[in-house]
Specification:
four-stranded antiparallel beta sheet; mainly beta
Length: 73
């Protein structure tokens, strides 16, 4: 998503579920020398009391892949 044109954007990943989530954090990890760009998403599922962390590689335009996923109780 670009700051000057927020309506010209696309989804990296889209989960459809009916769970309520909270305490969400999104971080971007970037290393220009190594060409690494990753997005880290963490959230808590309400009423189930699980905490999820997902790390995705977004360095390549064509491929978007989940590198790491953790679910803690």
């Amino acid at each position: 998503m670009k700051e000057d044109d927020p309506y010209n954007s696309k989804f990296l990943i889209k989960w459809k579920n009916k769970l309520d989530i909270g305490d969400t954090n999104i971080y971007v990890l970037r290393n220009i020398e190594k060409g690494i760009k990753e997005i880290i998403i963490s959230y808590k599922t309400i009423f189930i009391n699980t905490f999820n962390v997902v790390v995705m590689d977004i360095s390549k335009e064509a491929e978007k892949s989940i590198i790491f996923r953790h679910e803690g109780f």
